[in-house]
Specification:
Helix content is 37%, strand content 15%. The protein has 11 helices and 12 strands. Strand 10 and strand 11 form a beta hairpin. It is globular, with a radius of gyration of 19 Å.
């Protein structure tokens, strides 16, 4: 095997690199991961990196099953945050009008249709800095209603206090999504209305309440490769790694601050998917926004590198998504099937 691979694999586990057994699978996942060790993995020859990621993936997951989720915007537009990529920010003149919180019965009916289409997890997103107390009763009813259908529930509502996290946990919320977006170093270049540490505080509140964490980031914000690696190292070094790690490719939205950011190289994107799988072997790595700009071949390599979750349907909040027909066709061509609820590691 290539000398670089041997060097990386033989480092002591105390340095953050896991030893590989005879089958190439990780035998442990010691903390903390260092940036240097993660960078060494990222820089492996592409074929060696994919082999290692696929080997780790097969240890914890069926490599031919993909977890399907559906995402619904339950409150669109008018968000006071200034996230430079977001069409829903009130700081951008994107033409998107602010809406009120959807009625509970509409959310439940959408979830019912999503389940009929093969989704096992239903995600509900609201364009808020944080929920207001007056909205909590409706959010609880949504969680309880979707749970009654036999689906996993996920919400993304901005920052949560410990009390709000506790309320949602009591309602039975399974996952809470709160992406850290990028590295701590680059974060102020993207968002100024809340801090990186506030993002981590919400993740801690969610975890303390007993809700599973869904947290990842966006590639293509103008960051450097080291920022992408630092983002994953931050997530992997949390007291518990997120159970779900969405990796987004920026969708340039007209009239947002980052619309002219150069696109991410596809090989670099796949390397980050592989690194996420290796650093967080038991997490679902979700191939999220930006799939409409990805070729079938690029998506296939992402699945081989360890991505095993996608959003289905025509829309992700306000952005385009490939749609059920295209996803069904691609999965059939690749021999992939939809995961079941009982397939979780």
């Amino acid at each position: 095997m290539h000398d670089q691979v041997s060097t990386v694999q033989s480092r002591e586990t105390t340095a953050g690199i896991v030893d590989l057994g005879a089958d190439g699978a990780d035998s442990a996942t010691p903390l903390p991961w260092s940036h240097a060790d993660a960078r060494a993995i990222y820089d492996l020859p592409f074929n060696d990196l994919l082999f290692r990621a696929q080997t780790v993936h097969r240890r914890f997951f069926d490599p031919n099953r993909i977890q399907l989720s559906k995402l619904l915007s339950i409150k669109t537009g008018g968000c006071p945050e200034d996230c430079g990529y977001c069409s829903q920010s009130a700081h951008h003149d994107s033409g998107l009008k602010a809406s009120k919180l959807l009625e509970v019965h509409r959310v439940i009916e959408e979830a019912r249709q999503a389940k009929a289409g093969g989704a096992t997890r239903y995600c509900m997103g609201a364009a808020w800095r944080s929920p207001k107390q007056r909205d909590m009763a409706m959010l609880v009813a949504m969680v309880e209603g979707v749970k009654s259908l036999g689906m996993e529930t996920c919400m993304t509502l901005g920052m949560l206090s410990p009390q709000q996290a506790g309320t949602l946990a009591e309602a039975g919320l399974d996952y809470y999504n709160h992406n850290i977006d990028t590295s701590e170093r680059f974060y102020p270049e993207v968002i100024t209305t809340r801090s990186f540490s506030e993002r981590l505080d919400t993740l801690a509140n969610v975890r303390e309440a007993g809700i599973k964490v869904c947290s990842g980031g966006i590639l293509g914000l103008g960051e450097e490769v080291d920022d992408r690696i630092d983002m994953l190292v931050t997530l992997a070094n949390l007291p518990e790694a997120p159970e779900s790690v969405p990796i987004n490719m920026l969708i340039p939205v007209p009239d947002t601050r980052l619309v002219d950011t150069p696109p991410v190289d596809s090989i670099e994107f796949i390397r980050i998917i592989a690194l996420a799988r290796i650093l967080m072997p038991t997490s679902h790595v979700r191939l999220t926004a930006g799939r409409t700009a990805m070729s079938d071949e690029m998506q296939a390599l992402c699945f081989f590198a360890g991505a095993n979750s996608i959003f289905v349907g025509d829309t992700l909040l306000t952005a385009a998504n490939p749609g059920d027909d295209k996803d069904t066709s691609l999965m059939r061509r690749l021999g992939l099937t939809a995961a079941r609820m009982e397939d979780a590691p």
